[in-house]
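Justification of resources, computational component.

The compute hours requested in this renewal are based largely on the per-chain cost of generating structure records like the one below. Each record pairs the submitted sequence with a full structure-token output. That output is archived, and it is also reused by downstream analysis tasks.
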Amino acid sequence: MSYKLILRPSWPDMHGNLSLCHLERGTRDLQSDCGQTILVCLFFATVIFHLKHHTTSASKLPLALLCSIVGIILSPIVLFILFLCGIYRLIARATLYTMYSNYQGLMNGADAYWSLEVDSSKAVINIIAYVELKSSGFTDLRCSLKKIFQDRLLSEVRLFKLKCLRKLSMFGYFYWEEMEEVCIDDHIRWMDLDTVTDNSMTDYLSKNCNNPLPQNNLSLWEVEVAKHPLTRDGRRLYPVLFRIHHAVGDGMALVSLFLSSFTDNCLSNRLEAIQEKQMKTMKQDTGPTKDLLQVPYQRRRRKSSIFHGDELNKLNKHCIYGVTTMLQKISVVLLAPYVLLSQACYGVDKNLLHGAELVGKKHVGWAYGNGTLTKVKFIKNRLNCYFTDVILLAISNVFEEYYSMYGKPPRDLTVVIPARMPYEDEFNTTNILTNRFTVGMIKLPIADPDKFQAVRRSADRLRTHPDYLVNYWLLKVICTYIPIVLLKSAMESRQATLAMSNIPGPNSLTKIDGNLIHDLVFLLPNRDTTGVGVSMLSYAGKMNFGLIVDSALIPYKEDATHIAQRMVAEIDKIYFCVKDKCG
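The structure output for this chain reads:
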């Protein structure tokens, strides 16, 4: 048996080694703390530099890089939270499915966002149409509308939202619940209006545009028809008010619904589709496949149809959509911190039309722009700018004039400009009623000596900035997975004074059951603390302007109509100015 001699260090040597280890560890901790401190200081220095010089491009690159690093570091935590919310959402969906027989699914994205509303600003889109009847009986119009909804809209699978109620579950998610039976008389009713004039219609809509919808505001639409006509240009026009909750769809989706399913144009399109399908069937029945070799011939054709051009194009589109979606999600992870920080730099507007608590009483006004659409296009082409630039310039001039009436105009306003994601329209065509919008904010110059160039720079900054992309995916993901308790405070915006929306409508006059629609006006709802909404709807060569404002911001109803009318006059003024200078 052999023994190994183990030498143990003496106490002084051991104490010295421990001290050396502690010293090395302390040095490493100090270096790590110094590195973290330097990184934090560098981040805040970059943020301060960006806040001071956020209009210059020199401050954007370092801040964007630092924010991208922060986004990459935080992405595992965010993904883990979304994973937990996803599991919670699956449990909620399964439970609601077993509890309610008429359950039609949880709301996604922007549908849930617009279901977050307060009594002072209900998320209801108001559309006014003026209809000239082909017959003298006004009761025929209401009957025609009831028949259209029953035969064309409520029976369409893609329009299932029109048959649903909007409800909030105990899990904190909004969901769709199909009505047992849609009482059409509750949804299509008469206006409580004895005398119909332009002024009485303005007053009526001001009082009713923020009213709750049927079924204790759980239903999503209603239509009001006037019993008496309005005489204009020798025509007897009956006003029809369409009130649709924004959870049903955005403005573009509603216009698409109007053209594809509501007007008489859709009937001719359906007849053409049916006739084309019948012709194809006749060709197949009388063609060369009707012989003894029919079965094997069709089998060979079915095998080779995979390689036909239509199938390849469809497959190619799906591949492009998948790759585009993946790249956009990666971009959002990298750019979201920078975009959110940049939007926080806007600050909260402090001016005459922002800051007061909204009370829910609205003033509305509208104006018809005969030839305005052509004039805006002329200005756009001559100045080599965008369509929106011309509209923003007119809005800036009109509100500078309004502020000057009551005090000093502010330097600028924060304006919310919604947009629709174009690639979603191209690849997702299965559902007509959708909310595929996104939002961006700009600082609209008001008191600026070189206003047009300032407006153009501000609008160009939004076009080149990733706000639209990031906000779209944040809205789509966060509003889908996060419960309402957390979502309500996270999605509230208090920065903007004004919201602007431009909706392109049909190029020619349309008909409802043979009745000609002469004018359309679109009013977008207020949201959060933004109590001023300016909307444009082009229809049959016209551009009609609408304004909705909370009475806490503009107490006099005449001012709302005056501002809308000034929009048309301002575009005329810009048009003649450009025409005189450019020839």
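DSSP finds 18 helices and 16 strands in the chain. The chain has a mean pLDDT of 80.
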